[in-house]
Amino acid sequence: MKKIVPQIITLLLIILVFAFFTFNANVNMSNRGMEFGYGFLKRAASFDIQFSLIEYSRESTYGRAYLVGLLNTLLVAFSGIIFATFLGLIFGIARLSKNLLINKFAAFYVEFFRNLPLLLQLFFWYYAALRILPLPHETNGFYNFYMTIKSLYTPSLIWENLDVFLYLLGFSIILIFIINNYFKKIQENKGKQYPILLISLIILFIIPSFAFIFGISSIDIEYPVYKQLSKTSGTFIGGLAIPPEFIALFLALSLYTGTFIAENVRAGIEGISKGQKEAAASSGLTQKQILNLVVLPQALRIIIPPTTNQYLNLTKNSSLAAAIAYPDIVLVFAGTALMQTGRAIEIVSITMATYLSISLAISAFMNYYNKKVAITEK
Amino acid sequence: MIIDKNTAKNDVLTKTYIGIILISLCLLNIVFASFFSVEILKFLPKKIDLSFTFIIGLIGLHLIRSEKSDIKFIHYINTNTNNNNFNGFLTLCILLLILITIPPVINWFILDANFTGDSKDACTGSGACWTYIKVWMRRFVYGMYPNEEHWRINLSFFLVVGLGLIGIFARGQLRKFITLYYVIIYPIIAFLVIYFLISGGSFNLVWVETGAWGGLSLTFIVSFFCLIFCFPVGMLLALGRRSSLPTITYFSVCFIEFWRGVPLITVLFMSAVMFPLFLPEGVFVDKLVMVIIAISLFEAAYVAEVIRGGLQALPRGQYDAAKSLGMGYWRMYIFVILPQALKLVIPGIANTFLALVKDTPLIFVVGLLEIVGMLNMAKTNPKWLGFAMEGYIFAGIIFWIICYSMSKYSQKLELKFKTDR
Amino acid sequence: MFKYLKQLTSLVAMVAVLFTFTTESMAAKKSKTLKNTIKKGFVKCGVSQGLAGFSFADNAGNWTGVDVDVCRAVAAAVLGDANKVKFTPLSAKERFTALTAGQIDVLARNTTWTLTRDADLNLTFVGVNFYDGQGFMVRKDSGMKSTDDFKSGMSVCTNIGTTTELNLADFMAAKGLEYKLVGFEKADEARDTYGAGRCDAYTTDKSGLAAQRTVLPNPDDHIVLPETISKEPLGPVVRQGDAVWEDIVRWSLNVMIEAEEYGVTSANADSMKTSNNPSIKKITGAEPGMGEKLGLDNDWSLRIIKQVGNYGESYKRNIQDTGILPGTRGPNALWTKGGILYVPPLR
Question: How close, in Å, is residue A91 to chain B by CA atoms?
Fold first, then answer.
């Protein structure tokens, strides 16, 4: 009885608060003649988006605009995660080096980028650093890579019959998975080690390349070609054009998150007690085996949870694209679409639901991973 | 044989000396090139010049490397930077990088920069124009707050910080009330200060609307008040999450996971654009209040997780002992558990505060101009175009000093509390 | 006898009711906004975050501009002092929300009058204080002389969330050109990005182009192309539903234009009181009655003209003398002088 009363009170309070807000919202919306509904997603957007991974034009619907924004967010988040992990690994390991200069250099990187606000770094890259780049007609480029103020123009690959290649790639990945499990089982049962990594790499490279060897798929390279737009300006057509908005966001996110990942990596490797390495060495394992079988599994156990948290932070921080003109979901959907339609509640709720789903997915993965590698203590 | 040992020693010494000479040559070339713009090896084409210098340096490092050199300085360099070829290579790269970048940086920052003057005409050098910062300094620190009223902001700053530090000096009997003080009394005092002193409107103080607050003082106000308000809420949420009542636990978990899953910028959008629809007709909440509430709720979720960690780390014995003394739920938490748990998580809270300070520039989306917003506004002023770099570097330096000192302090605290137990 | 008594009582009742109604309307017209404004002592005006010529604050916090003058006119009419205005700078995102939520009572933020905004967002546009059109600005040395010189692949800087963006999309689609839109929320950033060379063109309302051009590092390096690709009637906005407040704002603006049509300026307003022209008499308040219908006192229009000036003076002071559009007023001249400013008469 004692436990039920406070719960009922809390429940009533929560319901009251929600009812209050909903009632007010209803009153306000009917007063202003606004309606609530998600039907506006089918209306034509009538605005253009600078950078899109899928087909989009001004006749596409608001729903499609949402999709474009979402894909752009995932694109910058994904590339940022890869580069941040790379930086984190390098500088994390460098922090443990016996080389004083390298150690201090890595420490400088971590302390420098960690203590500056991300927004400030983003503004610096976009409004200060990338503004110094030359105009397209003023640059000679570097082996067909043109770094200009308008975009980074790179050659692009043109595929033919890409799906065959992708099917083979998928097939080889599944094969690698199966073989990995099989070999791991043998290793646990008999202690025999097989060069798993080597075999996996061979499969990964040989099987998809069958697509090319037998002439089914083919790649072509398209180079950016200068096109004059006016007497003093031009652009490059063909190839891939990466806008400076993306580059600035990518750089700022990676450099900033890389510092946290570096600290995690360092903590992970330092966290393994020396006794482990010494015991392994005294058991007769080679250096490489110690790394693979003793150090890395334990280090990963410590490193991965906080690093996954950092991946989540990076994805959320990509919403800062609203401050520069990168068309991610916040700028396109919760910015332009919101201002054009005025449907604040619907749009903001969809945006928040999107981010919540991403973060819940990553949390679920983290929980699953933690359970899998949890050390069962006696 | 003795003769062999001596010749071997002589060999090593010769090698070391040659190595030193080569390294010095390499470094001298670079130093001359970057510091004094003098090219010693001008007769060689540009690309070979750099690689030539680099290779000389590498060979030199290779030569001076030995297990244990007699010369102490060389031995120090060897053990710390030069154990093998790879390390030597990296060392040289980093050294060259530093030497090449320092002179232009110093040039831009100090040698070619302007420090004096009152208007754009004073910016004659090719370096930074610190005059710009000097002229706009008042705006950067106080925003658009009227000049004559700046003393009010200074006074509030000292008051709030002073009252906050009082808690550290509590002794003996007063120790019990620390939690109560920080959770209930201090926020109320802080709120009164902000309402009466900074905002004004009564006691003969001119009313300054929140749209005029800005600059570094706004950064301070927002971060401080958000920290003060998110602390009690975070604590309640942490307690709620560990509660035995399922409704409260469920609600706390939902609340925490919701705020931790969305980016701060969408929360601010929500408070600016969506929230007015949820208020009764005619009721209108000030923009700054809405922002502080939004950020406080947002950070409270993170603080809740930090405090939860602390609560979990306390030994069960504490809970059991308090219960066996007949303490009720609240007495146990206020006087026994929370003081200890909070001491454990101070570094975590310091980290959250750090993140909060770094997140304050985001309030530009609702139109409040703290220091980064003020910078953006100043850089588009017609009389002062083109000084974006100086502004960002100035703000960067300030933030860096604040954040670095705070993180170092929290590391010190963490060490101190680790050994305490 | 009793028959007449009944009729008499009903007559007396009717008269009494009529009497209370008229005294009501004579005392104060039913307008919550008006009541609140008088109670607060200032007009809550929403303006831009800094657009020269329309609403711009200097270092000391003094606001000037044609939009600012509309709000000051309302303040002069309602509160007697044109300076009793509180200006709230708003971004494009929050401008309509601030108005519907009650944070401001008049939105004078160079807002385009469109059907969608009128119907969808529950607002009322009370007039046009600036007839404008959207145009493009390019660098002079690019050699482009008109929008026919535009080529596929160019990049254009502009503001997002405004009619500008939609017009641009329509225009480029009609011309069949592919372009890259670089859109910012703040006009300053769009302008700076264009100035740095990232974009080949900058588009917004032509008045905005002129204003922003004066703020670029080398104004003479940029030209505004002659084509106007849309109609942009800019005017003040109020909440739908408060008819009295709508009328007050609408006629405060109209009186400024009427005054210019009849030659009444801030300098000669007092002396014009003695004129024989009935329109001038109404404008200067020499002939009473107009203010009463709006729930204001008699001198409301005289105060507007004396403290803020007529439309021509406001235009000259903010747009011509500041060098933004120093030439002829184009469509923003009176209908008798070749423009399209034609407001309903004060009668």
Answer: 13
Confidence of residue C130 (pLDDT cuts 50, 70, 90): very high
B380 with C188: Cβ contact below 8 A: yes
3-state SS, chain C, equals CHHHHHHHHHHHHHHHHHHHHHHHHHHCCCCHHHHHHHHHCCEEEEECCCECCCEEECCCCCEECHHHHHHHHHHHHHHCCCCCEEEEECCCCCHHHHHHHCCCCEEEEEEECCHHHHHHCCEEECCCCEEEEEEEEEEHHHCCCCHHHCCCCEEEEEECCCHHHHHHHHHHHHHCCCEEEEEECCHHHHHHHHHHCCCCEEEEEHHHHHHHHCCCCCHHHEEECCCCCCEEEEEEEEECCCHHHHHHHHHHHHHHHHHHHCCCCCCCCCHHHHCCCHHHHHHHCCCCCHHHHHCCCCCHHHHHHHHCCCHHHHHHHHHHCCCCCCCCCHHHCEHHHCCCECCCCCC
Is residue C130 within 8 Å of residue C235, measured between CB atoms?
Answer: yes
In this prediction, residue C158 carries a pLDDT of: 92
Distance from CA of C50 to the nearest CA of B (A): 10
Of the residues A120, A255, A332, the best mutation for testing chain B's interface (the one with the most B CB atoms within 10 Å of its CB) is A120
Most confident range, picked from A340-344, A353-357, B70-74: A353-357
Supply the DSSP string of A159-185, one letter for each residue.
EESHHHHHHHHHHHHHHHHHHHHHHHH
Chain A, residues 17-56, CB within 8 A of chain B, namely 21, 24-25, 27-29, 31
C142 vs A50, A233, A235: nearest CB:
A233
pTM, full prediction: 0.83
The structural domains of chain B, with segments of one domain joined by +, span 2-111, 132-420
Which residue in A has a C-alpha nearest to residue B98's C-alpha?
A105
pLDDT higher at A210 or C150: C150
Q: What is the mean pLDDT of residues C9-15?
A: 64
Q: Which residue has the higher pLDDT, B34 or C15?
A: B34
Q: Who among C153, C160, C189 is closest to A237 (CB)?
A: C153
C88 with B144: Cβ contact below 8 A: no
Q: Distance, in angstroms, between C302 CA and closest chain A CA?
A: 35
The rounded average pLDDT for each run of 10 residues, N- to C-terminus, in chain B (421 residues) is: 68 78 80 71 65 79 72 74 76 84 82 74 74 81 80 84 74 67 78 79 73 84 85 88 84 90 89 80 79 91 87 82 85 80 80 87 84 80 74 89 87 72 46
Chain C residue set in contact with B, beta carbons under 8 Å: 49-50, 61, 86, 88-91, 93-94, 97, 100-103, 188-189, 191-192, 214-215, 217
Q: Is pLDDT larger for residue C143 or for residue A253?
A: A253
Contact A339 C240 (CB under 8 A): no
Per the CB < 8 Å rule, is A32 touching C162? no
Between A181 and A373, where is the model more confident? Answer: A181
The residue type found at B316 is: R
| Angle between the N-to-C axes of helices B371-379 and B388-420, in degrees from 0 to 180, rounded to the nearest 10 | 170
Give the fold, CATH level 3, of B132-420: MetI-like fold (1.10.3720)
What tokens appear for C258 in the block? 């009427």
In this complex, the residue of B281, B367, B376 whose CB is nearest that of residue C94 is B367
Q: How confident is the model over C190-207, as pLDDT tens digits?
A: 888 898 888 999 999 998
- Kindly report the nearest CA distance between residue C234 and chain B, in angstroms: 23
Q: What is the pLDDT of residue C13?
A: 61
The nearest alpha carbon in chain A to B247 belongs to A7
Are B211 and C88 within 8 A, CB to CB?
A: yes
pLDDT of A377: 46
Q: Name every chain C residue with its beta carbon within 8 A of the beta carbon of B282.
A: 102
